[in-house]
Fold:
Amino acid sequence: MLAISFPPLSGVSFLGNTVTVTYQLGQPRTLLFIFARSCTACTLNWPMWQKLFEQIDLRRARIIGVSLEKAGLSSQYLGLVDLTRTGTMLLPDVDSIVSYRFRYTPQTILIDAGGRVDGVWSGVLKSEQIGQIEQAVLSSKPVGLDQNKSTGR
Structure:
C-alpha cells in the first residue's frame, strides 16, 4: 500500500494572517484538531483535546486547530475553549479542504514529519484513544534534543 504525503496545509489564522503548515524532516509531528463551531460533538471533544494540549511535549508534536467554518475562529468561541497551548488555529483554504478530505468533525489527525498520516481518530475521543495518541507522539524523536549527546557517564 502506498503512503500518501499531504501537501502543505494552507489557510487563514484567527488573526487574519495567511498560514502555511509544511512538513519536513527535522520537524515535530503535526496533530490536527478538526472542528466546527456548530458541531455538538466538537464541543464535547474540547475537554479531551485540552488534555492533549496539557500532556503533549511540543518538541514532539505541534498542535493545530482547523475550523471548517469561519465562526469557529471567532474570539468569542475560542475564548470558550482554552487554546493557550495551540500554536495555530486556522480556517483552511479550499485546496486544503479537498487535499486533506476534511469532511467530518470532530476529527484528530496525526501527521509525521514527511506529511504522511500516522493516525486518524474520528468522533469524541475516549480515554484509551488519548493514550494511543500520546503513545504515537512519544514514539517520535523530540525536535531540538541531541540524541547523541553524552549522558555524563
Notes: Residues 144-153 have pLDDT under 50 and may be disordered. Strands lie at 9-13, 18-21, 29-35, 61-67, 88-92, 107-111, 117-122. Residues 40-55 form the longest helix (16 residues). DSSP finds four helices and seven strands in the chain.
